[in-house]
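Q: For a teaching handout, I want to show students what a protein-ligand complex looks like in token form. Below are the inputs, and the small molecule is magnesium ion. Please produce the holo structure.
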Amino acid sequence: MMATLGFLAGVLAGRLVELDQVDDRLAGHNSRLLAHALRVVQESHRLMAAATHAAADCSESDIATLRVLLFNSTFIRDIGRIQDGMLTCSAAWGKLPEALQLPPPAFTLRSGLVLWVGAANIVDSRITGDMAASRDVVVFTAPGAFEGFPEPGSGIDAKIVTRDGTHAYRRYGRTHDLHLPAEGNDGYRAGAFAPERRASACAPESGADICVVSRLRSDAWFQWPAMVLSVAGALALAFLAGLCVMWRLHAGSVKTDLRKAILGGGIQVHYQPLRQLATRRLAGFEALARWRTRGRDVPPNLFVPLAEAMGLGRDLSRHVTSQALRDLHGRLRKNPALYVSINVSAADLKDAEYRNFLLDAVSERGLTPANVALEITEGTPLSDGHVLAMVKTLRAKGFKVFIDDFGTGHSNLNYLAEMQADAIKLDRRFTHAIGVEAAGTLIIDHVIAISRELRISLIIEGIETEEQARYLLARQPAAVGQGWLFGRPVPIGDIASE
Ligand code: C2E
Ligand code: MG
Ligand code: MG
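A: Here is the structure, written as tokens, with magnesium ion included.
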């Protein structure tokens, strides 16, 4: 389809290029023919003017003068004298034994110039040609004066005419329907795709009464520019279409795969420990979703937002919640102070059913709501009353609520106070700033102060080194830590029993 469109676009573009070239060729030919015709006319005028000034008596010296004039001309074959409409002598024939009657002229110009077109020669009728007369001088144009016009094989029809278009000096090809454009119209404006192209031009107003009009038909659509452009257009659009199709297929298949994984149990859950900073005792686990497809792990930062955009955020949360409770219920029952922390989205918090789902899931496993913490990303809008109401209800039922990635959003103290969360989880970028960047470290100090002020517990993400752990312990011994130093996210089978 796209290839066909590309092909057609190419054909049209090629056709325009082709016609443009034809127009150029025709305009060039037209102006060359006009320039040549003007040279012929000017030479005739020059000769007639020179002959008029000489003694016009057909004497030996007069004929000699005519011969000199003729000898120096290019387009004129003979020059003669007229008396009372009769030819009396000429450079070629000398003095005629008896004067010969001139035939009736084809037309007379406003300047008084009399013209014969393709007339039989007066002296020898075997010769035909054009003649022009002014007062008592007549010139005979050489038959080859316009040799080379129109250019052989060009297929051009042309006509040399008077400015008013009523008389034709010369015609080439099929000219009965070839006319000068309406007065004041400089040249033709053919339709962009019209196969018949025309060109016209006239001598300057002050000059000879002469115009040239030409025509060339171009019916062939598949000249080289059209062919090249159409093939290139087809290839280019086909390539683009291919890219689009591949992209769509790819995007489509990722979504299909993700839908299957979420609804068909293909999402794994890994667990990362949270530990008391002071004692390193286990406080709980964060459940983190994992998706492996086509031999590659897809980061949750990519597939979680995609799932939410596909309207599968709820299904993902419920799957992770069920899986986490199934995997951890033994440990949680053995140590009721432990909790599993689950990431939830704003959509879950607006879903009235989610609370019941959680309560059922907890009681099915013989657990209490205190065994479950819900992580809400900082910035989840509270303006929507549903979210805040749900947070309150969940806390009232005994679930813990953590504000995740604290410091990356735009929350203020008001947000924290309103949310009444159990803990804030300081984003790992601040932990990474310890000992590296003063500003980040300063923020940690502030967050510690705020959490104390609001009596909210503090969980610090991304602890990778002992140095970071020591720094944090010195400032907030009651904090809980999470990070590679305390344990990476692992499948349930890899959690050491402690
Ligand atoms: P998060 O909730 O902030 O999870 C903590 C992320 O930090 C995890 O990335 C974890 O692997 C990583 N992490 C933990 N300790 C360290 C450390 O010491 N150093 C470094 N560099 N990274 C550490 P992960 O698993 O790639 O998850 C990324 C995010 O995806 C999570 O951030 C969470 O927002 C989201 N996510 C993961 N699972 C779920 C889920 O089941 N539901 C929802 N809604 N979101 C999820
Ligand atoms: Mg989290
Ligand atoms: Mg986080």
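A: Two things your students might notice: The chain has a mean pLDDT of 87. The chain has two domains: 1-249, 258-494.
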